Amino acid sequence: MANPNSVPNNIYTVLTFVALLALLAGVVFVAMRSNELFGTWNPMDAKDLSVLLPGKLNGLFG
Known about the structure:
about 60 residues, elongated, single chain
């Protein structure tokens, strides 16, 4: 028998949906802001930031 003091499962579904919406809003904000500042939606493709990387950095293991 269920505990009368327990929270129903529906609240966890709602909280998960709210967290997903907050995460999606953050990703969209970062993409829009990056496009505004650097001209590309991907912050890792920004030409202005490439001076911060070492010259011989070709890949993770290369």
